[in-house]
Automatic annotation (TrEMBL):
A Pfam cross-reference name: FBA_2
Source organism of this protein record: Caenorhabditis remanei
InterPro entries: F-box_dom, F-box_Sdz-33
Protein name: F-box domain-containing protein
Occurrences of domain F-box (ranges): 6-44
Amino acid sequence: MENLKPFPLFRLPRIVIEEVIKTMTPFEIINFSMTSLKIKYLTKCFLRTNRNSQYVLQVNTNEEPKVSFRGSEQMYFELKITSDKRKDGMRKYKECMFNEKIDTFWIYSEDVIDKWTNLVKTVIEVFKFIEHIVIFDVDKFPTKNKAIVDFIKSQTPSIECCDFYGVAETDEDVEYFLNNLIVTKFVGFNLKLSDGFKFPQYNYLDVCCLDPGNWVIFDQLLHLQASRLLIHGSPLTNEELNSFLILWMTSKCHQNLSYLLININDPQSLDTIFNLPHERINPDVERVGRLPNNDTIPLRGEIDIKRNDGMTGTINFGWRLDKMLLKMVVSRIE
């Protein structure tokens, strides 16, 4: 059998090469771009000028560190780094709810964090990302947490979304993350921090979700700037919730708030919270509210409170296991 000769790829017209790249999956693009610096440059140029090649990047530091990205469709491509040799080269495809499809590929490495950082570098260099999401598990690589943060900062000093997971009270690692990376849209805490934890960023967020929020005392609540604020497990008293609502009504705090969900620690004394001007609404009556972003929303609420600029906070109540929740939607009633 005769030896196969290398295919002269760069003798093809550029438009032909670009058509070939269009047919590739992200897995194939990554492998293709790593064959030579020239091919990496060509691939990068094509992807960064192609309107249909904009992806959302998600990196995850769980037990098998992951790099995943999603295009305009609900198709997720995941690359997982594993220390299990048996998984090397394994591929799994699954279809989920809401038409989501996930294609996962495993890569073996003795040093999973080193391999993961190299992979993150490659995909950031080659692909064009419109959003960066970090899932940070503080328990999996505790001795490398700060190095991981430093690495992410070297690739992108600001990210749109982050989620924290873990079981250890690791205030220092979470603070280091938030002191070194600017988060612009979403912060989610799914881990317990010490009661003395202080949120180190005061920039405005779209969503802040804290579960548990055991460290959210009154002063911390006033500094959490978000359009949608969801807090479970806070130690706030009914008197403090009353003070917060009064400050909101007088436009002295959280003027950008559009939705609030927060636990009530004493459901038996709701009158303490509503020791302020308010109106009780028939819950069977549906009204229309116009949100700050100008969208409309149907409203059914038990209590209305008015802000001094005419905005209305429509409040109702719910339960999460044995904990009562206060929910408030901010709108202009039409």
